[in-house]
Amino acid sequence: MSPDLKEPLWLKVRGYVLWIVSFAIGVLALFAAWETVRIITPVVVPLDPMHTTEYLGQTRLISIISFFALGITWLVWYILLIERYTKAKSAGILAKQFGITTLIQAIIFGLYYIAPTVVRWLA
Q1: Which of 24, 86, 88, 112 is the least buried, fewest Cβ under 10 Å from its Cβ?
Q2: How buried is 25 (Cβ within 10 angstroms: 0-12 exposed, 13-18 middle, 19+ buried)?
Q3: What is the pLDDT tens value at each position of the chain, 123 positions in all?
Q4: What is the end-to-end Cα distance of the chain in Å, rounded?
Q5: Number of domains within the chain
């Protein structure tokens, strides 16, 4: 078998393996993003002691809308990502795409860990 035929196959296999790794980390990043929204939402909506029912409804609405938006964005991102990973022309391009995705996930985790501190400062 010539090396030209083996390299695209290995790139495709590496693409699938890296997609699985990105997907596993991405699920955790999605839950971290959801938790970050849950932590930050009470700061965004001001609490009026005379209207607690409206406050709870507003925070619930913001949470549901953001959960839906984050979930759809995450799903579309990973559907497109498998296409990009498996169609990469070289290992360098594949590594760059994986690095960008991992950086985005690291930023989401960073926000998740910073959010409680920011909420305490603003409260």
Answers
A1: 24
A2: middle
A3: 455 556 678 888 899 999 999 999 999 999 999 999 988 888 888 877 888 888 888 889 998 999 999 999 999 999 999 899 888 888 888 899 999 999 999 999 999 999 888 888 876
A4: 66
A5: 1
